[in-house]
Every structure is written in structure tokens, then in C-alpha cells.
Amino acid sequence: MSGFPGGLVVITLLTTVAGGLWVIFDIVIALLFYSIALLLLVIYHLRYLTALDRWLQIPVPTSAALPDGSSTWGDVFARLARLMRNQSQSHQQLSLALERLRRATSAMPEGVVILDETDRIEWCNSMAEQHFGIDFNRDAGQQITFLVRQSKFVEYLATHNYSEPLIVKQTRHQELILSLQLVPYGDKQKLLISRDITRLEGVETMRRDFVANVSHELRTPLTVIGGFFETLSEENWISSEMGKRALVLMTDQTKRMQRLVEDLLTLSRLENTQNQVREGKVNVANVLHELYQEAQSLSAGRHHIKLNLDTDMKLLGSLDELRSAFGNLVSNAIRYTTDGGEVILSWKSQDGQGVFTVQDSGIGIDQEHIPRLAERFYRVDLSRSRGTGGTGLGLAIVKHVLNRHQAHLEITSEPGKGSSFSAWFPEKRSIIQQN
User: Fold this and answer.
1) CA atoms of 278 and 319, how far apart (whole Å)
2) Do the Cβ atoms of 178 and 197 come closer than 8 Å?
3) pTM of the shown model
4) pLDDT in tens, 342-359
5) Could you tell me the fold of the domain covering 108-196?
6) For 366-423, what is each residue's pLDDT tens digit?
7) Where do runs of H (alpha helix) occur along 107-240?
8) Please, which contacts does 10-18 make with residues 24 or more away whose CB atoms are closer than 8 Å?
9) Nearest of 199, 163, 194 to residue 180 by alpha carbon
10) Which fold has domain 280-431?
11) Are the beta carbons of 417 and 361 closer than 8 angstroms?
12) What's the CA gap between 142 and 157, in Å, rounded?
């Protein structure tokens, strides 16, 4: 009791008085006095403890409702009052900050949904209500997957790989196309940000259709022109050396334009969201044997080409798309590897994932260029790329094919020491050969 008015000083005083009574009278009188004094002291403290307990039981305690107290209890209640005032001020400031944040997010053109660690809705703004067709007052605490019933979104939420946004078409609003991005933060919470990209997708569709239509229209005249050039070359109708060189150059450039048109058409098909992957069992080993033979032909003996098959794993996917992607990686390795260099094709299983790798001892790539390699028409060295006959679309095609198969491309390279391109396929697309 040393911190209260009947504390150490009071106890000392009572003990002294009781000792005096013992000396003057007898021990019974002294003990009776001491007992009554302690009982009164306990009642005194119980009174204030009871008052404090009643105050603590108030649903929303306030400093104004604190009981009055004397002596040390008065000091205790005064300190509690100061703490309550400080807490009230802090609470008001936090409430104002939260209200400002909510007003700011409500004014955003993007939808914002706060999800807890179990993916239940904690809060959302009005734009998110429009995008997902939800009502926060009614749906707060609901699982987001109960309200956004799209298998792509459920899979995106479960993979925990949120580096790329997910494009979905809202089933409740057929004309609405959303870009969804999950951002983890705090204690296992997530922000779900939705953007209306309907107009952007419309423009992208127009661009894609334009490129596809123009490429399709160019295919026929280029085929005719190329045919005539080949005929002129075979018939040897041109006698002058300058004419022959010009004919060879025109033939080569026509073939390059044909390859460009074909790559543009391929890319347009891959970008078309309506063009779903036609899945089947792909025997990767057979595909790589074919690509190995094609690589030998393209190299014409100028490179050392090896094929390593460490697994007989098959893939669930599109044979044509995977062959196109693998073929682009192989042809790039041969084009950018100097004569006498080495190109290694390998297929292996790692942690249940299928990994196709093309490794070369070529010229290599600076690190600053690697993040942009899969962009359309991106050139590390324009003059060198033209000299190899590439279209600048090969890696863009590879990226789209892998995305359509939920796979990803890893690139490691060092100038002068070669490059390694690895396509990693998820375990769900791996088909293990059963004996």
C-alpha cells in the first residue's frame, strides 16, 4: 500500500501509536486499535477501487466520468484523466487522417479493396463497388472470391505471384474490362486495385486488327514478288554482275519481309484474348529433336550444337505455340553466336517444373538491355540485328507463348561469355511419364 494515502507513512504512524498503547495499557488494547485502523484503511482503498472498477466498466470511459479522489487517489485519477485526454486527441487525429484517406481513395478513378489475411473484404471505395458489383455495407467481411466468381481471378489470388496485373472481363457487365493488381502490405493484408481499361483494350484491339489485316494483305504480294525473284535467279535472265547482286539483295529482303509478316501474324494471334490455348500432350523430347536438326541446318556446320535430355517429361499445352517459342530461342542463339561457338539445348525437371534452356557461347548482352529484350522490335544493336536477319519479334513471341502457358523466361548473360535463356513451366503443366 506504499503508493496510497495509507501507505508506508501511515503504516509507520499506526505501528508507533499501537506500540505506545501497548506500553501504556496492554497488548490487547494495542492490537484492537491496530486492527480497527487497518480495517478503516482497507475500507478507504476499497471505496476508491470500487469507483475505479465502475468507471472501467463504462462502455466508452471518458475523463469527465472519473470519480473524485483525495490524496494519492486524486493524483492517480488526475493522471488517468490526462491519459484519457491524450488518447482522445490521438484518436481524433487518427480518425481525421483515416477519413481524409478514405475521401482520397473514394475520389480515385481506380477501385480499391482492402483484404485481410483470409481475403475477406475490410473496406472498399465506391469505384470498387461499381467494378465488382458489390455493396460494402452488405458485403463487408465476405470472401472476395464469393463475389468475384472468375476462375482466373481465384487462380491469380492463390498463386501469390502478383508481379503482373490480371486482365478480366466482368461477367456482370460484359462491356467492362478490368485490370486487377494485388499489392501485399502490412500484416498479410492486400490491396486489390482495379482499373477500367475498356477503352484501352478497344484501342489495342483496333491496333491488333490493323496489324493483322495489313500483314495478311501484304503476304500475297510478297509471295508473288518473292516467286518472281526466285524465278529470275534460277533462269539466270540477268547477265550483269550488278544486276545479279541487286537480284540477290532484293530476294533476301523480300524473304526478310515475309518472315516479318509471318511473325506479326503470329504475334497478333497470340495477343488475341479470344484465341484460347488449344491444349494437348506435347512430347518435348520429340520437338527438341526436330529443332536440333533444324539448328544443324541453320548453322551449316559453323557451330557445335548439343542436345541434353535429362527427363522424358511432357507438357500440357499447344504444340504449335511451344514449338514456335522454342524455335525462336534456338535460332536466336545460332544467329548471335560466332563461328566455332557452342549452342546447348537442354530439357530437365527441377522441383516438379519443366525447364527448357538454350545456352550459347555467343557475344552476350549487357545487363541494362535484359529487362527490355522481350519488347517488340527492341534492338540491342540495330546494325548487328539487321545483319543476322532477325525481325525483332522473336522474343516477344516467346514471352506471349510462355504467358499463355503460365510459364516465365529467365535470362542470364554476360558480354563476351554468352547467354542462357530458360523457360520455366509450372508443375501443373508437367506430365510425368508413367512406367
Assistant:
1) 9
2) yes
3) 0.57
4) 999 999 998 889 999 999
5) Beta-Lactamase (3.30.450)
6) 888 888 888 777 776 655 555 555 667 888 889 989 988 889 999 998 888 889 999 9
7) 126-132, 136-139, 144-147, 151-159, 198-235
8) 10/41, 14/38, 14/41
9) 194
10) Heat Shock Protein 90 (3.30.565)
11) yes
12) 15
